[in-house]
C-alpha cells in the first residue's frame, strides 16, 4: 500500500525549505532527504537488510575449524565456502570479476541503474545512515528548521546521537571488513583487550573513517563525481531500457504553473508539489528527463504515487518505463546489444563451470635446491635435491605416491608416499639419483608425478631439470 501524505503537508515543507528551483538542485550542498514508504521502497529496504546481514554475518560463520569466508594473506590461502584458492588461482578471480562486469552490463541494458538503487554498497550504507538520521533528528522539515535556527540543547543532543550512531555503524563495518582477513572472533576479543595488531587496527580505523565520510557526509557526491559507472552507464542505455521516467505528456502543464492563452484550458496531473525532489537521495528533479545522477531507487515513484492516490488520479505519473513506451511505441526487449551481453555472459559462465569441474584438487610447486647444483657420490651416482610444496585442495585427506621419470635408472631417495590433510600444505625435500655414466649432457628434463592412492584421477605432473657434470669429449 502506498503511503498517504496529506496535501497540506506538501506545501508546508516546500515553504520551510525555500530551496532553489527543482531544475537546479543543490548537488554540492547538503540534501535533506525526505523519508518515503511504498512498494519499491519496501523492496529496497528488504534487499538492503539482506545484503547487510550477509556482509556482517559471513565472517562469524565457521566451516569446520575455519571461517566460511576467509582471505588468509599470511598463508596465501583464500577460503570461499568449501573451496580453497591460492595465488596461482588468481586467474579465477579475474574471470569472476569480468563475469560480474558483464552481468552488470546486461542488467543495465535491461533495467538501467537498478544495481545502484538497490544493491550498491554506497547506496545501501547511505540509506542506512539516512534511516538513523530520520529517527534521531526527525522528519525533513524539522531538520531544516533546526539547522536554520540558533543552536539549542535539543538540536545538540540529536546531532551527537546521530553522529554517534553513524560512527558505531562505521566501526562495525570496519571490523567486519577486517574480519574477512583475520578470524573475527579473535579480532573482537583483541579490540576489547586493546591488544590488536597495529596493521589490523589501521585497517579497522581506515574503513571506519571511510564509511563514516562516504555514507554520512559525501553521500550523493560519491555517486555524482567519484563513481565511474555513473559516467559510462548512459552509453549502454537505449530507447528500450527500463528507467525511472516522468510522463510529461500526462503531467504537463503543472497545476501550479501560471498558464496563459490556450494552455489555460488544460491542466496536467502534476500538482508541482516537488515531493519527488524531496525524496531523491541525489537531489534531482526527475521531471527534467533522464539524468545520469538518477540511481533508479524509485523513491520518486512511490512519492508521486502517494500524491496521485490523494488527488484521485491514476498512479504511474512517474514510473519504471522506457522511452519508446512514453512515445506510445512498443518496447522491444530482445535487441542486438542484449544478445551480445547475454551471449558473452553465458559463455563465460559455461567456461568457468567447466574449468572448476576440471580443476584437479592438488597443487605442486617444485624448485631446485640452490645450495648446490648436484652432488657426486662415491659410487659414481649423481644426486639432485628439490624443494617441493604440496597442497591438498580437496575436502578430504589423501595419501599421495611420488614417482620420478625421465632418465634411465632415475631413482627417488627417501619416502615415496606422503599423507596430506584436507586443505593442508606440506613442504618436502626430495632427492633424485641417477647413474653418472648414463648422463649424456649436463641437463636432462625429468618429471615428478604425484598420484592420490585412493583416487588416481587426482594427479599432478611437474617438470624440472636434473643436472650433472659437464663431460669433455
Could you explain the architecture of this structure?
The chain is an alpha+beta fold and 473 residues long. The chain folds into 2 domains: 1-359, no CATH class; 362-467, Immunoglobulin-like (Sandwich). It has 16 helices and 16 strands. The strands form 5 sheets. Strands 8, 9, 10, 12 and 14 form a 5-stranded antiparallel sheet that branches. Strand 1 (62-63) and strand 2 form a beta hairpin. Helix 5 runs antiparallel to helix 7 and helix 5 packs across helix 9 (198-218). The longest helix is centred in the middle third of the chain and has 26 residues, at 153-178. The protein is elongated, with a radius of gyration of 32 Å. Keywords: 4Fe-4S, Electron transport, Iron, Iron-sulfur, Membrane, Metal-binding, Transmembrane, Transmembrane helix, Transport. Pfam families: Fer4_18, Fer4_5, FixG_C. The chain crosses the membrane at residues 47-63, 90-111, 165-188, 200-218, 338-356. Residues 261-289 form the 4Fe-4S ferredoxin-type domain. This is Cytochrome c oxidase accessory protein CcoG.
* Poorly predicted spans: 11-28
**Beta-strand percentage?**
15-25%
State the end-to-end CA separation.
95 Å
- Integer average pLDDT: 88
Into which percent range does the helicity of residues fall? 40-55%
Q: Categorize the overall geometry.
A: elongated
Tell me about the biggest sheet? 5 strands, antiparallel
Count of alpha and pi helical runs = 16
Strand runs, count: 16
- The total domain count is 2
Radius of gyration: 32 Å
Structural class: alpha+beta
Protein name: Cytochrome c oxidase accessory protein CcoG
InterPro entries: 4Fe4S_Fe-S-bd (IPR017896), 4Fe4S_Fe_S_CS (IPR017900), Cyt_c_oxidase_cbb3_FixG (IPR014116), Electron_Trans/Redox (IPR051684), FixG_C (IPR032879), Ig-like_fold (IPR013783)
Pfam family, one: Fer4_18
Keywords: 4Fe-4S, Electron transport, Iron, Iron-sulfur, Membrane, Metal-binding, Transmembrane, Transmembrane helix, Transport
Amino acid at each position: 500500500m502506498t503511503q498517504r501524505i496529506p496535501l497540506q503537508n506538501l506545501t508546508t515543507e516546500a515553504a520551510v525549505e525555500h530551496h532553489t528551483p527543482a531544475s537546479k538542485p543543490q548537488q554540492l550542498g547538503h540534501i535533506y532527504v525526505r523519508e518515503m514508504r511504498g512498494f519499491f521502497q519496501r523492496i529496497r529496504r528488504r534487499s538492503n537488510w539482506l545484503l547487510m546481514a550477509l556482509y556482517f554475518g559471513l565472517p562469524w560463520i565457521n566451516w569446520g575449524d575455519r571461517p566460511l569466508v576467509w582471505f588468509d594473506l599470511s598463508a596465501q590461502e583464500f577460503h570461499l565456502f568449501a573451496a580453497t584458492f591460492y595465488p596461482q588461482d588468481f586467474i579465477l578471480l579475474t574471470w569472476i570479476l569480468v563475469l560480474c562486469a558483464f552481468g552488470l552490463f546486461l542488467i543495465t541494458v535491461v533495467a538501467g541503474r537498478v544495481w545502484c538503487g538497490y544493491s550498491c554498497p554506497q547506496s545501501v550504507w547511505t540509506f542506512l545512515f539516512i534511516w538513523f538520521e530520520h529517527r534521531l533528528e526527525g522528519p525533513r522539515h524539522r531538520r531544516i528548521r533546526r539547522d536554520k535556527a540558533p543552536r539549542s540543547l535539543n538540536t545538540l543532543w540529536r546531532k551527537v546521537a546521530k553522529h554517534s550512531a553513524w560512527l558505531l555503524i562505521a566501526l562495525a563495518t570496519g571490523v567486519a571488513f577486517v574480519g574477512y582477513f583475520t578470524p573475527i572472533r579473535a579480532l573482537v576479543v583483541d579490540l576489547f583487550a586493546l591488544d590488536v595488531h597495529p596493521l589490523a587496527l589501521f585497517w579497522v580505523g581506515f574503513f571506519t573513517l571511510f564509511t563514516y565520510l562516504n555514507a554520512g557526509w559525501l553521500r550523493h557526491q560519491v555517486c555524482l563525481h567519484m563513481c565511474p559507472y555513473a559516467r559510462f552507464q548512459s552509453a549502454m542505455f537505449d530507447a528500450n531500457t527500463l528507467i525511472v521516467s516522468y510522463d510529461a505528456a500526462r503531467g504537463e502543464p503543472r497545476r501550479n504553473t501560471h498558464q496563459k492563452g490556450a494552455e489555460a484550458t488544460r491542466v496536467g496531473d502534476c500538482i508541482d508539489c516537488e515531493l519527488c525532489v524531496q525524496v531523491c537521495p541525489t537531489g534531482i528533479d526527475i521531471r527534467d528527463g533522464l539524468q545520469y545522477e538518477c540511481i533508479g531507487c524509485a523513491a520518486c515513484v512511490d512519492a508521486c504515487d502517494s500524491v496521485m492516490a490523494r488527488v484521485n488520479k491514476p498512479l504511474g505519473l512517474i514510473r519504471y518505463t522506457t522511452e519508446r513506451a512514453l512515445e506510445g511505441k512498443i518496447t522491444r526487449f530482445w535487441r542486438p546489444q542484449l544478445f551480445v551481453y547475454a551471449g558473452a555472459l553465458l559463455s563465460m559462465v559455461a567456461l568457468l563451470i567447466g574449468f572448476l569441474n576440471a580443476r584437479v584438487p592438488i597443487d605442486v610447486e617444485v624448485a631446485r635446491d640452490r645450495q648446490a647444483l648436484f652432488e657426486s657420490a662415491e659410487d659414481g651416482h649423481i644426486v639432485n635435491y628439490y624443494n617441493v610444496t604440496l597442497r591438498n585442495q580437496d575436502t578430504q585427506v589423501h595419501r599421495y605416491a611420488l614417482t620420478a621419470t625421465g632418465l634411465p635408472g632415475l631413482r627417488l631417495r627417501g619416502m615415496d608416499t606422503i599423507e596430506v590433510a584436507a586443505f593442508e600444505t606440506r613442504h618436502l625435500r626430495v632427492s633424485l639419483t641417477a647413474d653418472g655414466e648414463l648422463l649424456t649432457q649436463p641437463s636432462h628434463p625429468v618429471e615428478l608425478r604425484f598420484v592420490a592412492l585412493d583416487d588416481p584421477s587426482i594427479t599432478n605432473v611437474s617438470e624440472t631439470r636434473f643436472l650433472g657434470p659437464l663431460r669433455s669429449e
